[in-house]
Amino acid sequence: MDNVKIEAKELLYPSNLLTISRLLLLPVTLFYLGCPERRREALACLALTMFTDAIDGPIARSRGEVSRLGELLDPIADKLVLDSTAIILSRTRGFPWPITGLLLFRDIGILLAALVVLGRRAKITTAQSSGKATTVALTAATLGYVADGPRIGRPLLWLAMIPFGISFVQYGVRFIRLMRGQNHPSGSNSA
Fold this sequence. Notes:
The protein has helices at residues 14-33, 39-62, 68-92, 97-121, 129-148, 150-180. It is mainly α. It has one domain (7-180): Four Helix Bundle (Hemerythrin (Met), subunit A). Helix 1 runs antiparallel to helix 2, helix 3 (68-92) packs parallel to helix 5 (129-148) and helix 5 (129-148) runs antiparallel to helix 6. Belongs to the CDP-alcohol phosphatidyltransferase class-I family.
């Protein structure tokens, strides 16, 4: 498990501080999302939260600070933000519950599979390009639902289902290959 070692200095990397700030902004964001009269605040918090996601990876790479901590925290933060946002929006803004269920199913599966891979192979699995595209597309859809409910959000959500479906299949195939010990062409350890 040596290659999964996290160093204390990684907590101070700007990219990891952004990821941690995303987690710290989540309760405030969820509070505003749950208050229909606070739509502007919810939109601002969610946009800020997701902006930190858009810039943390490029900052880490440009500074040569891609870290194990970032590889662990970033996908967990993404999933917590998007999944909890989907739950709140399903309760308050017409976000479809079946999509929320699929999102939760996929993300719990990805996290459990990553834990299995980490335990058996001492390797941190990183996001696929389709997973990153799904995050971007779902972010646009959730922002659309916050801004104007299903009128703007639903078309964006249906578009988001394209990379979502692709990522669902790709993560499953990747998990099977990693468990069989096969190398995957995009299975490098970079954030």
